[in-house]
């Protein structure tokens, strides 16, 4: 027969554990934030149904209610964003498989941006404190109606930007075929729409001039202008330089100089793609 503790010892152990739990709860700095109650079902579950999406988030207590609630809310929004992001990414995959015009990096950023936009009308519907573990929780939800309204607003905003307009490239100057090819490839890589079978809405005019040629270098200036009809939306000149000590040809050096200019232009594409264009 195995060793057994006396009943009195068991009672004392039980009282000690209960007292320890009670001490932990009373010592928690956020125990008094809300009325004491069992953990709600939403604390440990995410949900997606016909009415909408629901998630939760938590934060360790600091004793400052405003900070604890903000951190719990932020964590809840992050959980909801991930829940929505899965659905958004599924939609993006089908779009990209048909268009095949964007890089995977853009796909990632678009998916994240969309899931964040869809959270505009998300609301925190409940809070709970786990006094034993000293943690604050927030429950957050967003309805199907709010999601649909956000999608409509987001699509309208996206369609009004230059990035969504069909573009074409017009090149002149030194080696216009190469300039056109490289600029077109850059724009497609960055997610711009270029479809030769549709009407050109945005014209990218690129003009490269050689301003210095030597045995081991080529200097050039590349001007890029962006037009929407008669309106000039962007204009800037980018210096370029190709240098080599390995007896490269002048055409190779000129190619390097052009690439140098386009690398600088690439840095300006973020503000360019967000320019709003009125087609009316």
Any chance you could write out the topology, listing elements then pairs?
Elements: H1 7-27, E1 47-48, E2 52-60, H2 65-99, H3 104-117, E3 123-130, E4 135-143, H4 144-159, E5 167-173, H5 176-189, E6 202-213, E7 217-228, E8 231-243, H6 250-267, H7 269-273
Parallel strand pairs: 5-6
Antiparallel strand pairs: 1-2, 2-4, 3-4, 6-7, 7-8
Which spans have pLDDT < 50 for at least 5 consecutive residues?
Answer: 12-25, 92-109
Radius of gyration computed on alpha carbons:
30 Å
**Overall body shape:** elongated
Strand order of the largest sheet: 1-2-4-3
Structural summary, described in words:
By secondary structure, the chain is of the alpha+beta class. The chain folds into two domains: 133 residues; 111 residues, Lipoprotein like domain (Double Stranded RNA Binding Domain, 2-Layer Sandwich), CATH 3.30.160. Helices cover 44% and strands 26% of the residues. The protein has seven helices and eight strands. A four-stranded antiparallel beta sheet has the order 1-2-4-3. Helix 5 packs parallel to helix 6. It starts with 6 loop residues before the first helix and ends in a 7-residue tail after the last helix. About 11% of the residues have low confidence.
Keywords:
280 residues, Double Stranded RNA Binding Domain, alpha+beta, 7 helices, 4-stranded antiparallel β-sheet, elongated, 4-stranded mixed β-sheet, single chain, 44% helix, 8 strands
